[in-house]
Design a protein that fits this description.
This protein is an alpha+beta fold. It is built from 4 helices and 4 strands; from the N terminus they run H-E-H-H-E-E-H-E. Keywords: Plasmid.
Length: about 100
């Protein structure tokens, strides 16, 4: 675990990591694969943790140092705020 944080901290000028619980952004849903914002996060993630275990917990890490295109409207303000606060990564998850 320590190595993970050391690696991510050195991977970009910004070292802060913030989390985003996707239900707070898009509301309730049955499965993440039906949510367009989840599809965008999955496509742009540097780290994937999905479809594992009985309930298929989803967690994805977005590197904010990358050039991110076509950001969904519901995520744009979150990403802009994180960048303004010099956050390096956003961890999107289901809260489970």
């Amino acid at each position: 675990m320590i190595q993970f944080w050391e690696i991510t901290a050195n991977a970009a000028p910004q070292s802060a990591i913030q989390e985003v619980m996707m239900q707070d952004v898009v509301g309730d849903y049955d499965t993440p694969d039906t949510v367009p914002e989840w599809a965008w996060v999955e496509q742009n993630a540097s780290f994937h943790h999905a479809d594992n275990g009985k309930d298929g917990i989803w967690e994805f890490m977005i590197n904010l140092g990358r050039n991110l295109e076509n950001i969904p409207e519901k995520l744009a303000a979150i990403i802009a705020k994180a960048r303004a606060e010099n956050v390096g990564y956003l961890m999107f998850h289901q809260g489970t």
